[in-house]
Design goal:
mainly alpha; Alpha-Beta Plaits; Four Helix Bundle (Hemerythrin (Met), subunit A); 3 domains; 5-stranded mixed beta sheet; disordered N terminus; disordered C terminus
């Protein structure tokens, strides 16, 4: 690499014959290229900066030797001969710039060697400056570059040897080989200067340089192999440490999992029972929340009752009307031209009119009367213990009060009313329809008036009286297709109707208690058989269905206790029979499993209790 530092040596090589032939010179160049290829190929997997710099150094040194030795002159045209000398000089300077970087990377483990890094960097920058000067096409600049490189070479060699001695004291194994390579570098420099000063013959000097380059290549190659071995060893140790750490973590995790499995297995039975209990409680709570939400008893806008609250309240009132033969009337009213209010003033004003109407009506009602929002601007008023004449008076009072009220922004609003007195034996739907027909007559008659509904057809009423008001009638649409379920459902319908008849006919309390006990016993047996069939059919929602059964039986037993304690609430009992047992469960909940039970099962196919 420093062979280019002498001013006339290249010219000497070109003009005088050399003892070594072109094959030997090519062999030396090949060694340098082989070194470069070795470290470059090793750089890709190892990603070490020292290997990359050494590969670049080998290529640059090979180029310098090719330019110096005469290989370039033999291969290139004669027109390129003037550029061989500056190129040899520039490549030699670049070699000197790369050498301190290689030494710094190889001796980085030594603190003493690292202390010389700043000085080596300065010398390397000077070498780069000499490289630039050598490429300037001005003879004085090239001459100055040759002198500068002649001074830099021994200085660089001395710094590298000093760093190598310090690294050796710090037990860095590669320091000796790097020191020997530096000595070979120094021999090249000294030989060139000796030839230039006439102290050594040209042929002997060239031979010495070749031997020194071979030694330099071998020592630098050994250093790179040592470096690669260290890197491989470090990588293997790091991988081994990672594998060991991973194995330890795997063992710890396996032990932890084993301990957890053991702990979980000892608690599995208790946790499973707790989970089942919690699931049942959650299902019950969710159902209760759903029922509470569904059973919201008031209209959110007006505060009046909603339909569900009315249906729950009207059944006990009808039962009392039958039992005590007391009158019961229903008022249905509708705001006149309410659509015009919405279209003219907007729905916000319409909502204010509805709220104001409810407030106005409530001011005129008795404490026993109930106001219901039936839908939209249509309302009901249930008036207990009130005959048709009294209900007509109440309706007129309500009509006049609303007509006199002024709604800010909307003015006066009127309403039409229809009044119907309950007829014994009449169904709830028929009663409401009669009130609705009277309301229709009031609207057809010019609005802002009250009309009474005509009495029901006596023949129809007498036919209806042949059975109890609360008789629940089995229909073919209720069938599941399973003979067990359908037979027991029909019997529960008959027993419920019988119990309602006992209640409405003012029979002794003992008869009510006996009829209720009979219904409760058959209900419990039906629930047991139904759960057995569902269990046999692997019904997925059986726990939820069984929880509903338990809730209904609890409520029924509470009603039975009230009857036995002479605390019977007829309204509560009627609500339980009509809404909870028949409508809520048999006609609603049971529908969900019809597709899961066999349709051809006979009475002898009932699984045993507890199966």
């Amino acid at each position: 690499m420093t062979l280019a530092m002498l001013p006339n040596l290249v010219l000497l090589q070109l003009e005088t014959p050399r003892p070594l032939n072109l094959a030997l010179e090519s062999f030396v160049a090949g060694l340098l290229v082989a070194l470069a290829l070795l470290v470059v190929l090793s750089y890709r997997p190892l990603r070490d900066r020292a290997l990359g710099l050494a590969g670049l150094f080998g290529l640059v040194a090979a180029g310098a030797w090719i330019a110096f030795s005469g290989i370039a002159a033999a291969l290139l045209p004669a027109a390129c001969t003037p550029w061989i000398r500056p190129l040899s000089l520039a490549l030699g300077a670049l070699c000197l710039a790369l050498w301190p970087l290689i030494a710094s990377q190889l001796l980085s483990a030594s603190p003493g060697a690292r202390a010389l890094d700043p000085i080596q960097r300065v010398v390397g920058l000077c070498s780069l400056l000499a490289t630039a000067m050598a490429l300037v096409p001005w003879p004085p600049s090239r001459h100055l570059a040759e002198i500068l490189l002649g001074l830099i070479a021994p200085l660089m060699a001395g710094l590298t040897l000093s760093a190598g001695f310090r690294a050796r004291r710090d037990m860095v194994g590669i320091a000796s080989a790097l020191g020997a390579a530096t000595v070979a570098l120094l021999v090249c420099c000294a030989t060139l200067w000796a030839v230039a000063l006439g102290w050594l013959g040209s042929e002997a000097g060239i031979a010495t340089v070749e031997v020194a380059l071979v030694a330099l290549t071998a020592l630098l190659g050994w250093s790179m192999l040592h470096r690669m071995a260290e890197l491989n060893l470090t990588t293997q140790q790091a991988r081994a440490a990672q594998l060991a750490a991973a194995e330890r973590q795997a063992e710890e995790l396996e032990a932890l999992v084993e301990n957890r499995n053991l702990e979980l297995s000892t608690r599995l039975r208790d946790l499973n029972e707790a989970r089942q209990t919690a699931e049942q409680a959650n299902l019950g709570l969710q159902r209760a929340m759903d029922q509470l939400e569904q059973a919201a008893s008031t209209d959110r806008l007006t505060g009046a009752w909603n339909r569900r609250r009315f249906e729950e309240a009207v059944l006990p009132e009808i039962a009392l009307a039958h039992r005590r033969r007391e009158p019961l009337s229903l008022l249905m009213f509708d705001l006149d031209h309410f659509k015009q209010v919405n279209d003219t003033y907007g729905h916000g004003m319409g909502d204010l009119v509805l709220v104001g109407t409810v407030q106005c009506i409530r001011e005129q009602l008795r404490a026993s009367d109930a106001l219901v929002r039936w839908g939209g601007e249509e309302f009901l008023v249930m008036a207990p213990a009130t005959r048709l004449e009294g209900a007509m008076g109440l309706a007129e009072k309500l009509r006049a009060a609303l007509a006199a009220r002024v709604f800010p922004g909307a003015g006066h609003v009127t309403m039409s009313l229809g009044v119907a007195e309950y007829m014994l034996g009449e169904g709830l739907r028929e009663w409401i329809d009669r009130a609705d027909q009277a309301l229709y007559q009031a609207k057809a008659g010019g609005r802002n008036q009250v009309q009474a509904a005509p009495a029901a057809d006596p023949s129809e009423g007498s036919a209806t009286l042949s059975r109890s008001l609360f008789e629940v009638v089995w229909e073919s649409a209720y069938e599941s297709g399973n003979i067990i379920i359908d037979t027991q459902h029909k019997k529960l319908f008959r027993l419920a109707s019988a119990l309602m008849s006992v209640i409405t006919e003012d029979r002794p309390l003992a008869d009510v208690a006996l009829s209720l006990e009979t219904l409760l016993a058959h209900t419990a047996q039906h629930f047991h058989d139904e759960e057995a069939l569902l269990r046999e059919a692997h019904y997925h929602d059986l726990p939820h269905h069984a929880a509903i059964h338990a809730s209904l039986l609890t409520k029924a037993r509470q009603l039975q206790a009230d009857v036995e304690a002479n605390r019977l609430d007829f309204g509560k009992l009627a609500t339980f029979l009509a809404l909870d047992l028949v409508k809520g469960h048999i006609l609603t909940e049971d529908q969900s499993y019809f597709a899961h039970v066999p349709s051809t099962a006979g009475l002898d196919e009932i699984p045993p209790a507890g199966a």
